[in-house]
Every structure is written in C-alpha cells, then in structure tokens.
UniProtKB/TrEMBL annotation, chain A:
This is Uncharacterized protein.
Automatic annotation (TrEMBL), chain B:
Keywords: Electron transport, Membrane, Mitochondrion, Mitochondrion inner membrane, Respiratory chain, Transport, Ubiquinone. It comes from Larimichthys crocea (Large yellow croaker). The keyword Hydrolase does not apply. The keyword Mitochondrion applies. Pfam families: NDUFB10. Coiled coil: none annotated. It is a peripheral membrane protein. This is NADH dehydrogenase [ubiquinone] 1 beta subcomplex subunit 10. Residues 1-21 are annotated as: Disordered.
Length: 185, 172
C-alpha cells in the first residue's frame, strides 16, 4: 500500500518533469516496453469498411420471404399428414380376387388416400360408364327424333293430308249449291 | 418384410465353414467393414422398418386386379348403335393400354438381359432381342401412326388398309 503511493508519486514526478513526452503517461509509465519497430504484426482481419452502393433488394427479399411463408403454411401440414398416413396406414397388398367376391370399386387402388378419395369423393367407374351411356342414349334418341320429324314434315308437305302445313280457308259449309238465276250470281 | 421359409420343415445342412485359423495378429479388415456396415446401416434400417410395420399391423388392407368382361367389337356393332360403339371404344382403349404395358415388359426383359450379359449381350440375349423386335414390329403395324387422337375406328381403318395392301400384294 505504501509502495503504491510511492509509485504513484513517482509517476506524477516523471509526468511533471517532461509532460509532453508520450511515454510518460501514467498508464504505461511503469509497464512500458521498448517499442520494436522491425517486428510489427500485419493482419488483414477486417480490412477497410466500405459503403457498397447497390440497388435495393428489400422488395425481392420480402417477396421470397412471403412466398416461403405462404407455401409452407399449407405445405408443411400436408406433408406431415401424408407422412403420417404412409407410416401408420400403409399401402395395400395385391392379392388374388377370391371366388364369388365382388370387390368394391375403391378396393382396386393401392394408396390409402387414393382409396379414400375413390370411396368418398368420386363416383364408381361403373356409375360413370353408365352415366356416359345414358347421355349417349339420350342424344341418340334426340337425333332419331329430329330425323323422323324431318321425314314426317316432308311427307305432310307433299301429300298435304296431315295436321301440319294447313292453310286456313273459308268454311266449305258456306258454299251455296242452290241453282242461280244468272251465271254470275 | 416378407417372411422367411419354414426353417423347421426344411432344416439347413450343418455348416461346413472351416474354423477360423488366424495366422496373423492383424485384424481382418473384411470383418471390420462388415460389422461397421451392419451397425451403421443395416441395424438402424431394420429397426425402423420393424417399427413402421408394427404401426401398420392394425390397418392392413388389400387391393385386387380388376377384370373386365369382353363386349362386342366395333365390327359386331349395328350401324348407328352408338352405345355399342362406346363400349367397343372403351374396350379398345383398355386393350391399347394393355398392349403398351406388354411392350414395356418385353423391353424391360431385354434391358435386364443386356445388363446381365454386359459386353456379350449380342451373343447371349438372342431370344429376348428377337422377342422384342417381333413385339415392337407388331405393335407398330397395329397401333403405329394413329397419333394422340387414336380411336377404335381409326385402328379398324388401319387394319383394313393393311388387309387391302396384303391382298394387293398377293394378287400382284
């Protein structure tokens, strides 16, 4: 303790002697070493900090960030769901159709999600086939009806004894068949 | 994983591998590598597969191969019977798909043979190559240039052209 005050007073004395010399600072008075100028450590650690001028990438980065966010918002739950389905409910195995058993239309698919869709969302392919054939039958009947209608029209126009192509005339009951006095009566 | 065969019904004969007679103190690198492979790859994969199979054990399901009945062809349909045309067309499309798959199977066989034989496949794969050539020639002659809008009618017309060409070639 006494030594400390002696050293502090020595530093103050040295500073008072030659205050402008840089080596006489109180901080390094007692522990300064001789500077060796031939062995200085040269490091390229940070380099000079530059202010790089480039166009703003804020909008691009914002777009990509939002894209990633909205894609993953539904993408991750869907991926997790499909993984769980594949792990916990596996794919079906192919077996021979047993005799006298008619499989349901969804039992012809392998993946459980495809089977679910075929069972609950889509109509059975047999029903689709029948629907198509019904549409064809209706169109066929319409086409046949149109052709027969044209045929009937042609006949009625020619012969004139049908309900179509009738011209309104005066009532034939008004014709006076009684004998007349002059030819121009 | 598929079950192994019944080891009790078909007992293996006693192994005749000679006793290990190591004449050197150095470790066997083949043994080291095989153990390394086993512990790093085989064991994790097998345990994972067993775990997944135990999860799936409750929800097993099966699927079947659909068989379609044969219906009259386009040739056996009356003129103007559009229902018959539709059924024949659907049957033709199914047959077209089946024929494409047949060509793929034959091609797969030829490629497997090529892979097996290596450089000498010209010599050893003759049967597969001949089968493949025949099948593709027939497929080309039947479904060849029908295009994307192929239909049973167009295929029938192509067949008619083939028959006419054959009759002409025969008479000429």
């Amino acid at each position: 303790m006494v030594g400390m005050s002696v050293l502090r007073s020595a530093a103050a004395f040295a500073a008072r002697l030659s205050p402008l010399k840089s080596g006489n600072n109180a901080a390094n008075l007692l522990s300064r070493t001789i500077p060796r100028t031939d062995k200085v450590a040269v490091r390229w650690g940070h380099g000079k900090k530059l202010f790089v001028i480039k166009p703003s990438d804020y909008y691009d980065r914002r777009f990509l960030h939002l894209l990633q966010y909205y894609v993953l918002l539904t993408g991750v739950p869907v991926a997790v769901f499909v993984t769980c389905v594949n792990v916990f409910v596996g794919e079906a195995e192919l077996v021979e159709t047993p005799e006298d058993y008619e499989p349901e239309h969804w039992e012809y698919y392998k993946h459980p999600i495809t089977r679910w869709i075929a069972r609950n969302v889509y109509d059975s392919p047999v029903k689709d086939y029948e629907k198509m054939m019904a549409a064809i039958q209706i169109e066929k009947e319409k086409a046949d009806t149109r052709l027969t209608q044209l045929e009937v029209r042609r006949h009625m126009r020619q012969k004139g004894d049908g309900p179509w192509f009738q011209r309104p005339t005066l009532d034939k009951g008004l014709i006076d068949y009684s004998p007349k006095s002059t030819p121009d009566n | 994983m598929p079950a192994d065969y019944d080891k009790g019904a078909y007992p293996e004969p006693p192994r005749q591998t000679p006793a290990v007679d190591k004449q050197t103190a150095l470790p066997n690198p083949a043994l080291i590598l095989s153990k390394l492979f086993y512990y790093s790859v085989d064991l994790p994969v097998t345990t994972f597969r067993d775990a997944v199979d135990s999860f799936r054990a409750n929800n097993k399901s099966v699927y079947y191969h659909q068989k379609f009945r044969r219906v009259p062809d386009l040739i056996d349909c009356q003129e103007g019977d559009y229902i018959c045309y539709y059924e024949a067309e659907m049957q033709w499309r199914r047959d077209y798909k089946v024929d494409q798959e047949i060509v793929k199977v034959i091609q797969e066989r030829m490629r497997a043979c090529h892979q097996r034989e290596g450089a000498s496949y010209h010599q050893n794969c003759g049967k597969e190559i001949q089968q493949f050539n025949e099948v593709t020639k027939n497929f080309q002659s039947r479904y060849g240039d029908l295009g994307a809008y192929a239909s049973g009618r167009k295929c029938l017309m192509k067949q008619k052209e083939r028959m006419m060409a054959a009759a002409q070639a025969q008479s000429a």
